[in-house]
Amino acid sequence: MATTNDTETASPSITLYTNHGCPFAHRAHIAIKELRLPYDEVLIDLGKPREEWYLKINPRGLVPSLKYNGEIITESAVVTQFLTDAHPSHLAPASNAPGGALRRARIAFFVDAWSTKVQPNVMGLMRNADPSTAEEKTTELVAVIGKEIEPLLEDAKPYFGGSDKVTLAEALVASFVIRLYAFGRGGVLPESLPGQLDALPNFSRWARTLQQTESVTYIWDEKKNIEGMRAMMEKMRKVKA
Asked: N or C: which end of the chain has fewer CB within 10 A?
């Protein structure tokens, strides 16, 4: 059983079906670590067709899937949100707590900005097979982060919304952020990317914090993730070609 820390109260029975190379599954790991919940872990090989037993758990074959006291919950944002709601903590206040609904709305807007504005540009950069346009697309990505994300991190201290602890915003976005820097350093994405991101003061300060946060890094293997992403991108580009 994987453990994240001792917990003083009776813990639920949790099994997390996951893959440490998947940024979506990584979301659930961050939440579980922050909530100090013990759990069993089943690693799913995403490099081969899913076995029948797993498709019975999650017909889509994706990770993460969560078995929580016998109930199955799927989709990374849903799993992470469920854990946050089931275990009130610093991740997000309850909706009916004073200021809770507004706080959760701010987090939701931030996560939506990343998911709908930034992530499509990240995927476009990853799929790009034309080296002559790589720098242009990198600049476009950083410009979107500067427009959509940078202003929302003005009050990060050091985490979203002035929090001194990880929030649901980090749980849902941090896994993607650390990969931008790692893939730039590793040459999977243009090597100019980390430097361009560092020109955004709020974002870069927040990103440095994420890269030093235990709940974000405890399953993170940078070298292995770089190698895996390089192989995946080669396949993506071949399919596009």
From this structure: C
